[in-house]
Amino acid sequence: MGTFRRGRTIASRARARSMLEHSFGIDLVQDTPAGRLCTKNGWWGWNGHVERAVLYFLPEDMELVVFTNSRSARTPRLRRFATW
């Protein structure tokens, strides 16, 4: 994620920023008091096993990814559990 956003080997910094701000491959772009936040939910499963993930491109060039392999009967989206 850092290489995409700042490394310039996958995309230029300007192109990466534009892609994120225009929701290319992103579920949500949100302005917060700390700055712009871009998030993406994901899940995959096989043979009854499910793994979930949520990633955040945070303000001030920070990234965060959370993975879980526990089942949740309530919701497939981890982002619903986070409050900003």
Describe the 3D structure:
The chain has 84 residues and is an alpha+beta fold. Helix content is 18%, strand content 40%. It has a four-stranded antiparallel sheet, with no helix packed on it. The longest helix has 9 residues. The mean pLDDT is 82.
Concise overview:
The chain has 84 residues and is α+β, with helices and mostly antiparallel strands. The protein has helices at 2-7, 13-21; strands at residues 28-32, 35-46, 49-58, 62-68. A 4-stranded antiparallel beta sheet has the order 1-2-3-4, with no helix packed on it.
Indicate the topology:
Elements: H1 2-7, H2 13-21, E1 28-32, E2 35-46, E3 49-58, E4 62-68
Antiparallel strand pairs: 1-2, 2-3, 3-4
Label this structure with key terms.
single chain; 84 residues; alpha+beta; 4-stranded antiparallel β-sheet; 2 helices; 18% helix
Task: Flag low-confidence runs.
Answer: none
- Tell me about the biggest sheet? 4 strands, antiparallel
**Averaged pLDDT:** 82
What structural class results from the helix and strand content? alpha+beta
Strand content: 35-45%
Q: Radius of gyration, Cα only, in angstroms?
A: 14 Å
Succession of helices and strands: HHEEEE
Q: Give the fraction of residues assigned to helices.
A: 10-25%
Total DSSP helices: 2
Largest beta sheet: strand ordering? 1-2-3-4
Shape: globular
What is the terminal separation in angstroms?
A: 21 Å
